[in-house]
Amino acid sequence: MDLKKAQYFFLRKSALRCLRILLIDTREGHFCLFEHSFPAITFDSVTSIQQAAAAVCAADALLITAGAGMGVDSGLPDFRGNDGFWKAYPVAARLGLSFVELANPAWFEKDPHLAWAFYGHRLNLYRRTMPHPGFATLLEWAAEKSEGYFVFTSNVDGHFQRSGFDADRVVECHGSIHHFQCTDGCAGNIWEAGEECVTVDEIVFRAANPLPRCRDCGAMARPNILMFGDGSWVADRSHAQEGRFSQWLRTLEKKSARLTIIELGAGTAVPTIRYTSESVARRLRGNLIRINPREAHVPEGCFSVATGALDGIRQLEEAL
Ligand SMILES: [Zn+2]
Asked: Separation of 1 CA from ligand 1 center, angstroms?
């Protein structure tokens, strides 16, 4: 056994609540590894998770904010960095296209079969992937709150609605893959993808005909997702969701309701979700619980849980 690696393992696994003890027995001249789980590794982390759970419990209203890290525990690919993206889409690596370059509306004109290979593949993946059990746990907590809940997410997978969250209480700030719009912007309509199927040959990474078409004018359709360099995204649906969210926040403010925000898997690369969590926390003097395995730093007075989304939810549940 490499002792340096063993120590590294020890440090990585000793996050937050569970301590894995490493014992090295050299009596026989061999290294042996024993693991044992304990509740609590440091006083601070236990205090923090218990206080965070108490904040969930005491809240009149719950705001759940979620970034890409929320979906990773359901088995969805992590697009962080070129390595993460190219692991999920090796064809993009062969074409030398980063996520930012491929997630661009220009492809629907230049090469719609490639554009729909990317979005069709994701549509099929999000449809067949089951949201992890953390979604149901959050909904249980949220449904008990006297002033209700809202979800604010940059994820386009629709997994909150699929888990039973009220569609009128979800803001999808980057749109939804389950909704389409026209690439020509003819009537500005947004419609549900419904049963529409996109068949993708994953070897050559091309979508097969027929590709989705605009219901109004017959031009190429595209997902109603905010892409990079996207001047033609129809934002009406997201704006309506944001309007309902703003109204809810105003009501909470009027009633001086106690709000707790649970933020899950939202990184600093596209900081919309973190910014929303922090600004709402400031405005309503709410509690913010940030669950993030890599970027768990928080403003003063907020709770930081340095784990993945599902693990963080489970830790809170155990502490409740
Ligand atoms: Zn059209």
From this structure: 63
Which residues share a beta bridge with 201? 206
- Determine the distance separating the centroid of ligand 1 and the alpha carbon of 105, expressed in angstroms: 15
Structurally, the chain folds into a number of domains equal to 2
Q: Dig out the tokens for 188 from the structure.
A: 């500005």
Rounded distance between C-alpha atoms, residue 285 and residue 260, angstroms = 9
State the catalytic residues.
Answer: 174
**Residues 32, 55 within the same domain:** no
CA of 167 relative to ligand 1 center, distance in Å:
26
34/161 same-domain check? no
Q: List the structure tokens of 79.
A: 């697009």
Residues 31, 118, single domain; the answer is no
Q: What is the pLDDT along the chain (320 residues), one digit of tens a residue?
A: 343 333 333 333 333 333 333 333 333 333 333 333 333 333 355 668 999 999 999 999 999 999 999 999 999 988 877 888 998 888 889 889 999 999 999 999 999 999 999 999 999 999 999 999 999 999 999 999 999 999 999 999 999 999 999 999 999 999 999 999 999 989 999 999 998 999 999 899 999 999 999 999 999 999 999 999 999 999 999 999 999 999 999 999 999 999 999 999 999 988 999 999 999 999 999 999 999 999 999 998 999 999 999 999 999 999 99
At 307, the amino acid letter reads: T
Asked if 71 and 29 sit in the same domain, the reply is no
182 alpha carbon – ligand 1 mean position (Å): 4
**What is the C-alpha to C-alpha distance for residues 300 and 320, in angstroms, rounded to an integer?**
23
Same domain assignment for residues 32 and 137: no
Q: Are 165 and 304 within one domain?
A: yes
| Ligand 1 mean position, distance from CA 28 (Å) | 76
Q: Which domain holds residue 293?
A: 48-319
How far apart (Å, rounded) are the C-alpha atoms in residues 305 and 91? 36
